[in-house]
Amino acid sequence: MLTVRTSIGKQVILIKAIVAAVLVLVFAIAGQAKAEVLFAAIWEKDGGPAFQARHNLTASQYQQTFDELVGQGFRLRLVNGYAVGGEPRFAAIWEKDGGPAFQARHNLTASQYQQTFDELVGQGFRLRLVSGYAVGGEPRFAAIWEKDGGPAFQARHNLTASQYQQTFDELVGQGFRLRLVNGYAVGGEPRFAAIWEKDGGPAFQARHNLTASQYQQTFNELIGQGFRLRLVSGYAVGGEPRFAAIWETDGGPAFQARHNLTALQYQQTFDQLVGRGFRLREASGYEVSEIRRPPPSFTCAVCNNGTCQCGSQTPGQLCVNHGGVDPTLGCVQQP
Question: Would you kindly state where each structural domain of the chain is located, as residue ranges?
């Protein structure tokens, strides 16, 4: 009898422990901020070779797609790395076009990236693109090198915001111009990878660490002054979207730029614009805390036929087929 009581007591204790553990897990999950992946991109209404674009690829999917498309005669033009739930994801653009020999790498640690950079530059390659992102709190890099000539260039990575600004001022003062800037976050702090070339060109403006509203305001101001957006890099700091961008006072085909698009909105926009003759030039993904968008406006109105109509239109529109609106009465939607 004593043994039975001891067994039951242990079972009760075990059950209580399991319940407590489950509650801890439930509260931990509930306390986690929801997140979503957003995209910033540029499309141009321009001709060119056939192209393929992908987003939200895992590392293995990206490698498989890379191998398949390169095997079909495509070459990588853009790769952007970002993290989703701590795991790397990639957005990329391939074009079926010729060009010099190229090398592409992804998921490189900072030391691997520096070593690869030194080796390839020593072999006559030059860096065309670099994208930083964080996995497990550590920086990773994806990059493209081409075996091609060109003006002197400078490349930096893992710069803090102040280091980036200081380097920008120094190099622009020496006659270099910014060709690429990529923002990412490590340990909750912004970092930047960038490429400068000692080359001429039209006037340009560059900004970094802009909030979504600051970016939109700057975009509107510079476009109004005759600049066009050449590059935008979206990233997240503390779960909030930030943007680095380059504008130039230069001509070119019609273009469309978007930011803070959800994956669904990005795909829909891509399909619509490509269907209208645009081609994707730039794309970057970034994971942010879930953006709470305001609910759509909702109205209820009493119509002259005695019905209560509810929806997102104006009262007059709601009652257009119901004898018009009776402005003296109101109603609410019943649950």
Answer: 35-289, 297-335
